[in-house]
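User: Please fill in residues for this 292-position structure.
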């Protein structure tokens, strides 16, 4: 039985790289502390593969044929895509892929009734993959990565219940389809509250962000699924906050466990609340109906 040895959620605001140096010291401290802890935890987990769920910013698929989940099957993942380089302000990177695990994921999820799409060519990555890959040193760690880009933009998007079900199927796939000695890391990339390019471009819903971070760290998945509605995320930032559904997929895979966040900060130039959570894969909580 393969084992999930690392699970975390983190934001990917583009300014976390290109604009970080100009941020106030207290903001830089939260960003550095969050991603340093996640990088150390990934390294300590000694994972054989990292599966990253992140939203697609309309870069890889046409709106009329938009997949809810798109697996990157390339042998090597490169980024950021040329068009996004000035926006993110980060260096080029390459990360080893795992076509075999990507193919197994596609087949395993299909077997469990979860329709995913897959692409052999390198996906077009912007901040969705680039920011966590660089800030957690995935690019330099040698850990193979399987990216899964999900639809958080084109209606109807998979809601919190659907994403949690996808996560449960993912956990079952990992435990029962992958090699028994394989160690798997999971990362949900996205959020926190923001409204990219919208009327509230500089609005950050600090109350929502703190509520969300406390809730996902508590391990109360029943409350999470009941209260983290699409309407609530839309009110916290249209077109951006729903990226947190990538975290929900990870939570579905690991079940109810306590987590730790490393502080929270807001900075207008990031246009996004910043905070991450690392879940304790050595702890279990009482089973809840949502996690059954």
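Assistant: Residues filled in for all 292 positions:
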């Amino acid at each position: 039985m393969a084992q999930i040895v690392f699970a975390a959620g983190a934001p990917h605001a583009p300014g976390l790289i290109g604009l970080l140096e100009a941020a106030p010291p207290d903001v830089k401290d939260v960003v550095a502390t969050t991603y340093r802890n996640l990088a150390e935890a990934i390294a300590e987990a000694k994972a054989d593969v990292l599966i990253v769920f992140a939203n697609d910013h309309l870069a890889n698929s046409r709106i009329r044929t938009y997949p809810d989940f798109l697996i990157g099957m390339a042998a090597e993942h490169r980024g950021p895509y040329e068009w996004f380089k000035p926006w993110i302000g980060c260096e080029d990177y390459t990360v080893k892929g795992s076509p075999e695990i990507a193919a197994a994921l596609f087949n395993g999820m299909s077997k469990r009734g979860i329709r995913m799409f897959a692409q052999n060519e390198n996906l077009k990555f912007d901040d969705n993959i680039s920011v966590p890959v660089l800030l957690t040193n995935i690019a330099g760690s040698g850990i193979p990565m399987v990216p899964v880009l999900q639809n958080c933009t084109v209606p109807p998007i998979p809601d919190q219940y659907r994403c949690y079900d996808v996560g449960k199927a993912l956990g079952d796939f990992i435990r029962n389809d992958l090699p028994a000695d394989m160690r798997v890391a999971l990362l949900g990339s996205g959020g926190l509250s923001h409204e990219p390019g919208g009327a509230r471009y500089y609005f950050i819903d600090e109350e929502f962000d703190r509520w969300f971070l406390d809730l996902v760290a508590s391990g109360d998945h029943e409350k999470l699924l009941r209260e983290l509605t699409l309407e609530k995320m839309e009110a916290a930032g249209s077109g951006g906050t729903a990226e947190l559904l990538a975290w929900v997929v990870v939570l579905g895979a690991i079940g109810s466990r306590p987590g730790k966040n490393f502080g929270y900060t807001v900075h207008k130039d990031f246009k996004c609340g910043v905070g991450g959570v690392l879940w304790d894969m050595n702890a279990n909580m009482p089973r809840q109906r949502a996690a059954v």
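For context: The chain has a mean pLDDT of 89.
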